């Protein structure tokens, strides 16, 4: 069951390039899915009575271009299927002419907020979205890993980075990964795809390290990323890029 809304990009999302960040593009899509869940009575408040929350485990995002400030968008989302432990959802950002600017295929699990671990999908929560129950396990492309990094930056988790699930909201990982590449890279390249896998949550007051490596033999500019706290890997990602016009 597809759900959609129209959305105008506010000025405060604008970057130095005049478009918005990957994190804000994801935020817009997540906002619309939350509106759908709230209307169905299975949003944050609906999940609270079960002591549960949704946690994303992998996002595969393709980007034709990132929206620009004041642009009118058509934002859509659809929970496609679920099984005992996983739920699959797609998202999209379209321009006014119906061209898809960005699209996400994602995998979610249900999270016990007290025990801090994965729990079986609650059918009373998943079924109202129109998602089809299926035993099939969908697998998104694997994310390449790396050992030695070309560079890294540390980031301290702020109080306002923590969401209602009690850990760092998933969109902050995009900011850490992209920012670690430095201003010069971001001024000359734009992302065309992001494949990110979340492995362990990041909690309040943690200090994370965002490490990256350039893939030198790739057909298109590609960077590999790793978010870690100490020896614990929290997330890994692979991002492809295209040069910005001179």
Automatic annotation (TrEMBL):
Pfam families: Acyl-ACP_TE, Acyl-ACP_TE_C
Keywords carried by this UniProt record: Fatty acid biosynthesis, Fatty acid metabolism, Hydrolase, Lipid biosynthesis, Lipid metabolism, Transit peptide
Domain Acyl-ACP thioesterase-like C-terminal, residue spans: 150-242
Molecular functions per Gene Ontology: acyl carrier activity; fatty acyl-[ACP] hydrolase activity
Domain Acyl-ACP thioesterase N-terminal hotdog: 3-127
CDD domains hit by this protein: 4HBT
Stated family: Belongs to the acyl-ACP thioesterase family.
Protein name as it appears in the record: Acyl-ACP thioesterase
């Amino acid at each position: 069951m597809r759900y959609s809304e129209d959305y105008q990009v506010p000025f405060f999302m604008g970057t130095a390039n005049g478009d918005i960040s990957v994190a804000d593009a994801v935020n817009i899509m997540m906002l619309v899915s939350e509106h759908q869940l709230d209307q169905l009575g299975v949003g944050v408040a609906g999940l609270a009575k079960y002591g549960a929350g949704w946690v994303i485990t992998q996002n595969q995002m393709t980007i034709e271009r990132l929206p620009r400030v004041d642009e009118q968008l058509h934002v859509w989302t659809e929970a496609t299927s679920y099984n005992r432990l996983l739920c699959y959802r797609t998202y999209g950002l379209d321009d006014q002419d119906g061209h898809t600017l960005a699209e996400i295929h994602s995998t979610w699990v249900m999270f016990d907020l007290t025990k801090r671990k994965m729990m079986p999908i609650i059918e009373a929560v998943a079924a109202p979205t129109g998602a089809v129950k299926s035993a099939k396990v969908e697998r998104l492309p694997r994310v390449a890993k790396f050992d030695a990094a070309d560079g890294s930056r540390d980031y301290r988790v702020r109080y306002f980075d923590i969401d209602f699930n009690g850990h760092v909201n998933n969109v902050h990982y995009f900011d850490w990964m992209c920012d670690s590449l430095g201003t010069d890279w971001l001024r000359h390249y734009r992302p065309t795809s992001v494949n990110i896998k979340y492995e362990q949550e990041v909690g309040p007051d943690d200090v994370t390290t965002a490490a990256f490596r350039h893939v030198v033999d790739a057909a298109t500019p590609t960077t590999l990323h790793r978010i870690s706290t100490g020896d614990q890997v929290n997330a890994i990602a692979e991002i492809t890029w295209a040069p910005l016009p001179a």
